[in-house]
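so the lab meeting is tmrw and i was supposed to have these ready like two days ago... anyway. pasting both below. for each one the top line is the aa sequence and the line under it is the structure tokens. i havent really looked at them closely yet so no promises
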Amino acid sequence: MSAPIDRRTFLRGVGVSLALPYLDAMTLAQSAKSAAPVRTAFLFVPNGVNMASWTPTSTGALELSPTLQALAKVKSQINVVTGLAQMNAFAGADGPGDHARSCAAWLTGVHPFKTAGSDIKLGISADQVAAQHIGKLTKFPSLELGCERGGTSGDCDSGYSCAYSSSISWRGPSTPNAKEVNPRAVFERLFGNGNSAEEAANYGQRQIARRSILDFVLEDASSLINRLGARDQEKIEEYLQGVREIEQRLANFEKQNPVAGVAEVPKSAPQDRGEHIRLVGDMMVLAFQADLTRVCTMMFANEGSNRPYREIGITDGHHDISHHGNDPSKLDKKQQIDTFHVAQLAYILEKMQSVKEGAGTLLDNTMLVYGGGISDGNRHNHDDLPLIVAGRAGGKLKSDRHLVFPSQTPMNNLFLSMLDYVGVDVEKLGDSTGKLQGLF
């Protein structure tokens, strides 16, 4: 049997701090107070979806649509939700700009002030409401991740600032949270310890000697493992193996993009979009597993992104394809991109499901929302949004269903319910009208 250890135990070395996953020994140390926490994640995809291939044909018990087939292994952990809307993403008197508005409103439920200047104005996002209340419990109040860099100024959509189309996380009306798109930078941030000089020196040593970050915590790790029972030892070994696997994948693509200084963190990211999404997703899973944060946002791409998907043989721009005009060829390509995105989601969910926590898994102790702020990219509509809610919120969330809510039900009602289940009691968020009934 394991000896009791504190939930905030870290493995430490010079310039390195490795948090631990949830262990049985932590329950022994703090009893019920140490129950695995519930995490919230919000994963965003741009340009709408091919709704005919996305939406299940029946309600109630979930039957996966063609686009969602990759989720078969985690079907018992997901709900497909139809009918929710972000009405403040629709045009008012300010005219065009649906892409920027859809991104800005997705987690806020607020209509953005139209400007391409510095006088941006929106509202606080659901993730940051959670971070303000529970962020003090972890090393990072929240993580903001992505796969495309964004700007905070300039015109990116019909007079709307680039900040609106590249940020879903907002600390306040004029403060979007910058997302990190470099997987190596995220890795170093999660496991860095000490001042920047110490962290840079540690990174330089690892690069010169081709050493792992684990080499710097071996003494601490060996001492800890000897105090743990067999089940916890297995969890630690799996966790450390996962960290090492990510290091190796980072090293593989960095060999192709060397930097001038050994202590300089590469600024590049994998050219393969799937590997980029998976690596960033792995960082989120590690951060949740080690309780470094309980709140995360991740953008697969910026809203309006026109990047081609050569990984699956599509050379046309994504945004151009989304304006399909009912062209069968474009609709087919749109479904291929949607299916590709869902496959990356499936990878992340399966990884979370593989992490054991107490009597369940990391996915059991998560509420993850996946979707976007546009339904049909050709129509630019913001009702009937494509949404998946995954995980069981610590046993509070039913799953394996297709739930259809009345048309134009505020999506922020979902967020109010999610906040409630992580201990954040707020009466109003954006255009919410009350908690969403029937999901929990």
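ok protien two:
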Amino acid sequence: MVSATHTRRSSRCARPAVVLTVAGFLAAAITPSGTAGGTGQDGQAKQSAPTNGAAAKVEVQLSDGSTMKVALLDERVEVETPYGKLSIPVTDVQRIDFGLHVPEEVQKQIDAAIADLGSPQFHQRELATARLLAFGEKAYPALLKAEKGKDLEVARRAEGILEKLRQTFPPTSLELPPHDVVQTKDSKFTGWIRTEALKVTTLAFGEQHLKLTYLRALSTSSVVLAKEDATVESLPDPGTMAAFQGQVGKTLPFKVTGPQPAQATQMGVWGTDVYTVDSSLSASAVHAGAIKPGETGVVWVTLVGMHVGFAPTMKNGVMSQPWNQWAGFRVEKNKPNVNKKH
């Protein structure tokens, strides 16, 4: 895994815009179950499986930063851990942070393409390069390994592909952990959710299967806002503030869930008090003390425009990184005074 600073430096290159709409993302993320729950062998639309009214209402965050509200139809989340397999009722789940999920068939294609980077045929090497770029962040871990391999041609090409991926994807998408973290009220479990998709129902699309490979986080309705935040009409966690950097001077409320300190450090935080707009908002909020790890609530974000000097510090268990000049934001627990100077 590359260091956060190295990834950061690479991400500063002029990178092509990647525009992913929610509708487009859902087309890839959702595997249809058919009209109102699928189609039977006779070709007739079958009804959705009846529910007992206790389906867990959750908000999921997709890998493009968008969010959507769904109801989980699965009764349990099966998690493989180093100490055995756990079956956790979804009604007990408060949050899930998803690691990198690559389907087995896709992983085989990635491994084959990396092997073709060393092909004696130029056309085959070029084709393999294009295929690996198309796999995006899913190919990142395998490319990191290939970059350190003994085959110099494979290593050289892997390095070039990695550089392009760092120009295209934010660090939070590339540096996903190889495991999932499931949090309940009293415990936190690190392991691997082996299912490829969650069975959900949505108001707009009916019963669907939501692929884990496109999920970043899930928060259930059992995670409630603090009383003082209950009346605030807040925006969902955007992941980073990059999409809002043009709104200099504005202060906006966002509902976030604070990650654990170790995870927050991995998510990417640059600066102290003022953070770069491509820092993780939730991780920055923990660093700033605006929210506690595992807590869900509203934080107030003020866009400050271009800022010089982002200092690294260890605060609240989160280590931030340095940077020079970049658009920034402040994050606070309470709504700042409108007359406060930033």
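from a quick look at the 2nd one: The chain has nine helices and 19 strands. Residues 4-99+177-220 form one domain. will dig more after coffe
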